[in-house]
Amino acid sequence: xxxxxxxxxxxxxxxxxxxxxxxxxxxxxxxxxxxxxxxxxxxxxxxxxxxxxxxxxxxxxxxxxxxxxxxxxxxxxxxxxxxxxxxxxxxxxxxxxxxxxxxxxxxxxxxxxxxxxxxxxxxxxxxxxxxxxxxxxxxxxxxxxxxxxxxxxxxxxxxxxxxxxxxxxxxxxxxxxxxxxxxxxxxxxxxxxxxxxxxxxxxxxxxxxxxxxxxxxxxxxxxxxxxxxxxxxxxxxxxxxxxxxxxxxxxxxxxxxxxxxxxxxxxxxxxxxxxxxxxxxxxxxxxxxxxxxxxxxxxxxxxxxxxxxxxxxxxxxxxxxxxxxxxxxxxxxxxxxxxxxxxxxxxxxxxxxxxxxxxxxxxxxxxxxxxxxxxxxxxxxxxxxxxxxxxxxxxxxxxxxxxxxxxxxxxxxxxxxxxxxxxxxx
Length: 426
Description:
The protein folds into two domains: 2-186 and 387-415, Glycogen Phosphorylase B (Rossmann fold, 3-Layer(aba) Sandwich); 200-383, Rossmann fold (3-Layer(aba) Sandwich), CATH 3.40.50. 36% of the residues lie in helices and 15% in strands. The protein is built from 15 helices and 15 strands. The chain is globular, with a radius of gyration of 22 Å.
């Protein structure tokens, strides 16, 4: 099979799929990306670059679209060169988030396209206005609608799409949902495992283990979208009630989602000005290697995961696979995975007092922590394991899209919004 993957940050969601197809030398696997670092055995990497930055001197609703068109054009030019050299894929897998999938059909009209439809923006009911209690301005509503322009165009051109969760599927327009499968990226549950011997060295020379009372918070970047401000403002009361606790915070100072603070270099700097903490007990260890990241989860007595209604972090599922006892926000993407007091504990995103109470109650109840942790791992292994669940589904989907084996739906069923259950097995 000749298969083309497109993602500006290779390999991202396609790491395991690209590796799978590259294992067979009869396959021709090509990856179009902006990322210069990193190679994959058996995968030909084709680099592209943007000719310029997005135009900031346009209507602010259009700034995203201008940049996304640049992505689409650059990918199309890279694919045109591939075509001139004789490469015509049997199937294309492309992430739609940055506009890279916009013009693939113009270069390869004969190739079926399967796009990764990660997030469809909504002015109401998702991340926009969440911190303001659901209040959104007309400007926010209009801007959110325009942020979907490239996504809708990509969906219309694609033969099929895939998204990780049911909640993300529901965000997409009803007209497109019958052509979107629900398959998560998958968790390596044989790698993300508990380890009673895990140790985490601190910058001050001390070493923490499961013998210590450790509370953890983890995110790619420390920012409000992942509840960093809520967690920080809860810390004084939490530290007062737990005099022997250590708090480990993992994450960088950049911005992945939302905006940077206007009055500080980073959200960490801003919150540390507002919330004084004891550096002997609160440890910011930045971004860490993957092995250390796993050990942070393995020594955690209570792990905290907070998020806006937005894309669910891989880290939450990986923490569950490590048998973490989790206190998580009762927001839609989390509630799809965690059931309160079955495989974790849920708390209102904004209720700092309740967050502290839940953490303290779990710290005082080792039997409950053990029960929740084991249930969390069992749930992830059953529903999200990479090798036994998610990767086989993804492979089967790609094979069917490559053969153009699509299901058909009646017009009457489509008029009702969706014909039956989401097509998670297709």
